[in-house]
Automatic annotation (TrEMBL):
Residues 23-105 form the MaoC-like domain. Pfam families: MaoC_dehydratas. InterPro entries: HotDog_dom_sf, MaoC-like_dom. Belongs to the enoyl-CoA hydratase/isomerase family. The lineage of its organism: Bacteria, Bacillati, Actinomycetota, Actinomycetes, Mycobacteriales. This is MaoC family dehydratase. It comes from Rhodococcus pseudokoreensis.
Length: 140
């Protein structure tokens, strides 16, 4: 990120996942020891009235925002705060795009920070997560 160009209204380059992988969803459920069958059992997904594809973990969907910020800032440690609201589900096979915009820049020198509006949109245009992040901006 070119720190001189970070101003309110600046867009954060988006992060796109072309197709959320159902196998990845199942593996994350195993790694997290997540017993919720909507992440790995298609019969349970259907029985819950949630369609016919595995449901991505909310934290995995939020991680797309973290990946976007890390790519933009150059380091994961620049992300100082994340606050999100989960609005809808992401399913295996969905395309998702994480995006963001700088709302304000505060501080100076080593204490310069950007407050950013962030979101994840599903390929059908539905916003599935929205929130804010605070990102440390390094000195040039």
């Amino acid at each position: 990120m070119s720190t001189n160009e970070i101003t309110p209204g600046s867009a954060i380059p988006s992060f796109v996942v072309d197709s959320v992988d159902g196998e990845h969803i199942r593996q994350i459920a195993l790694i997290l020891d997540d017993p919720n069958p909507i992440h790995f059992d298609l019969d349970a997904v259907a029985a819950a009235g949630m369609g016919d594809r595995e449901i991505n973990q909310g934290g995995s969907t939020m991680a797309y925002i973290i990946d976007m910020i890390t790519s933009w800032a150059g380091t994961r440690s620049a992300l100082q705060r994340i606050k999100c609201r989960f609005r809808d589900n992401v399913r295996a096979g969905d395309t998702v795009t994480a995006g963001g915009t700088v709302l304000e820049v505060t501080g100076g020198g080593d204490n310069r920070r950007a407050l950013c509006d962030v979101w994840v949109d599903r390929g059908d245009g539905k916003r599935v997560i929205d929130g804010t992040v605070v990102v440390a901006i390094p000195e040039d």
